[in-house]
Write a structure and sequence with these properties.
The complex is a heterodimer of chains A (about 110) and B (about 120). Chain A is an all-beta fold. Chain A is built from no helices and eleven strands. Chain B contains no helices and eleven strands. Chains A and B meet through strand 4, strand 5, strand 9 and strand 10 of A and strand 4, strand 5 and strand 10 of B.
Chain lengths: ~110, ~120
């Protein structure tokens, strides 16, 4: 069984500040981890994913995430927030041989000018 | 390259009715997954189709059913609609090998917003 917990349903940051969105997972198999972004009235867009190999993953739009097995975490960061980053962010997990994505409840990011 | 498209964009039905939602996969993709996203929640996996056969199912009752066609387009059918079926329904396509490895990226469509009154 797999599950995802995203800490903080709503995060506000100032433009230019660090963005940190937290994700912890539970998985009975080695996990594959994903971050998706959803803009209002749109579907989900993949930001980045971790499958195997390097634990620091770089994605689109300046985002990156680090897989920490000991902490069962996959937090998403961006050094400097832009207004265009305001959206909802979802962390998801799957596993070897598992086609199903299990999502967290999402974190809504607001960027204050 | 054409992305994942879904139709209709919005739909209003009454309790007890039946609904069909449609999805056109991204070119070259052989697998489609359907998710239900209730308001304020993350998407929940309904089922996946690989080469026209159901390849796995989440915790949804049998009144949720689907089809995948030879051109890899797909339908989600929901019978006997209930108020709790009101949600955004997302279709995602991917290119899977032998039923999926778990690592393949799923590309999502914009969704169909279903309202059940």
């Amino acid at each position: 069984a797999q599950s995802v917990t995203q800490l903080g349903s709503h995060v506000s940051v100032s433009e230019g500040a660090l963005v940190l969105l937290r994700c912890n997972y539970s998985s009975s198999v080695p996990p594959y981890l994903f971050w998706y972004v959803q803009y209002p009235n749109q579907g989900l867009q993949l930001l980045l994913k971790y499958t195997t190999g390097a634990t620091l993953v770089k994605g689109i739009n300046g985002f990156e995430a680090e897989f920490k097995k000991s902490e069962t975490s996959f937090h998403l960061t961006k050094p400097s927030a832009h207004m265009s980053d305001a959206a909802e962010y979802f962390c998801a997990v799957s596993g070897a041989g598992s086609y199903q994505l299990t999502f967290g409840k999402g974190t809504k990011l607001s960027v204050i000018p | 390259e054409t992305g994942v498209t879904q139709s209709p964009t919005h739909l209003i039905k009454t309790r007890g009715q039946q609904v069909t939602l449609r999805c056109s996969s991204q070119s070259g993709h052989n697998t489609v997954s359907w998710y239900q996203q209730a308001l304020g929640q993350g998407p929940q996996f309904i089922f996946q189709y690989y080469r026209e056969e159901e390849n796995g199912r989440g915790n949804f009752p049998p009144r949720f059913s689907g089809l995948q066609f030879p051109n890899y387009s797909s339908e989600l059918n929901v019978n006997a609609l209930e108020l709790d079926d009101s949600a955004l329904y997302l279709c995602a396509s991917s290119l899977e090998v032998a039923g999926g490895s778990g690592t393949d990226t799923q590309y999502f469509g914009p969704g169909t917003r279903l309202t059940v009154l």
